[in-house]
Amino acid sequence: MTDPIRPTPQPGILDIAPYLPGKSGAPGSKVVKLSANESPLGASSKAIAAFASAAEHLEIYPEGSSRILRDALGEVHGVDPVRIICGNGSDDLLHLLAQTYLGKGDEAVMNRFGFSVYPIITMATGAKIVMVDEDDYTADVDAILAAITERTKIIWLANPNNPTGTYLSDKDVRRLHAALRPDILLVIDSAYAEYVTAADYSVGLDLVGEAENVVMVRTFSKMGLAAARIGWMVGPEHIIDALNRIRGPFNVNLPAQLAGAAATRDVEFTDKLRAHNAKWRQWLTAELDGNAMRVLPSQANFILVLFPDAETAARAFGTLLAGGYVVREVGQSYDIHNGLRISIGSEEAMRGVARILKSMEAAQ
């Protein structure tokens, strides 16, 4: 029997592995969700109030350029709003970058355990994703540079990286950029910047201000506004102009714009969230890191725990789930079959996770 005639996807689309989000728990069970790197403190009360205020104007289209949000971001981060573009989550902006600067025959380079969205958006354009090995779960500048060819158009760099939590210092990022051809775009994905405490880290704004081939992408999802889907990017005006030509005309809704602007200005809440994360990230790392479990040093709002083998990791996932905690398996999406990514949650959740995993370790 021959296949029916029907619309056919472009070549390569069906070769793309779809994005797999973290589990939310078993049906009918009540679990603490530690699989999606969400805020354990909820959202800024000012952002919640701003979001609610939009209900009075639901019949009106939002301002198309997200001016309300761009003005707030420019004010707090010291950036000209003209050099800011906002999106329906940072994924929206990453898709736009790929669509604008990649095509059939092009290549984009990323580190082996980088964000799993990068291959999807690269391959969707007909371009090839080139993955390079890491240095102990950390992006390797020399390996990235060695992978560059005449076809390379983009370097995807999550800093800190998801799912490992590791990062490159400002010095290393600058060394990477200095060795790039001027026609190669360096995308610094700083989704977890709010949680970094390392003194030698830079969010990338200075480098963006100095170069014509660097952009910095950010998100509100990790600081309490995941449901609102808000992302933003800073870049040279010629890149912002190019993306504005193809983005959706109303790609950030009014409630999101208002909530994002309020959250941006509520630096007290952001500081509170950062302090909570730093305290319990350090505590959980110290509690779990040992002979049977290795915890990678993280600068994000999660830790990656490495077990002796995939079987032990699967058993740990099941034991945690049975105990009321769902964490992120990273085998299928990131090829780290002996690892579990655990979001930093409430004190109660962190103590519960530590108790279960340490009891499991003691029983072995």
TrEMBL record:
CDD domains found in the cross-reference section: AAT_like
Instruction: Specify the Aminotransferase class I/classII large domain's residue ranges.
Output: 30-355
Q: Which reaction does it catalyse?
A: L-histidinol phosphate + 2-oxoglutarate = 3-(imidazol-4-yl)-2-oxopropyl phosphate + L-glutamate
Residues found modified as N6-(pyridoxal phosphate)lysine: 222
Q: Name one Pfam family in it.
A: Aminotran_1_2
SUPFAM superfamilies xrefs: PLP-dependent transferases (SSF53383)
Q: What class of enzyme is it?
A: transferase
EC number assigned by the record: 2.6.1.9
Ordered alphabetically, the record's keywords are: Amino-acid biosynthesis, Aminotransferase, Histidine biosynthesis, Pyridoxal phosphate, Transferase
Pathway involvement?
Amino-acid biosynthesis; L-histidine biosynthesis; L-histidine from 5-phospho-alpha-D-ribose 1-diphosphate: step 7/9
Cofactor(s) in the UniProt record: pyridoxal 5'-phosphate
Signal peptide location:
none
Family the entry assigns: Belongs to the class-II pyridoxal-phosphate-dependent aminotransferase family. Histidinol-phosphate aminotransferase subfamily.
Note the subunit structure.
Answer: Homodimer.
Q: What is this protein called?
A: Histidinol-phosphate aminotransferase
Origin organism of this chain? Devosia soli
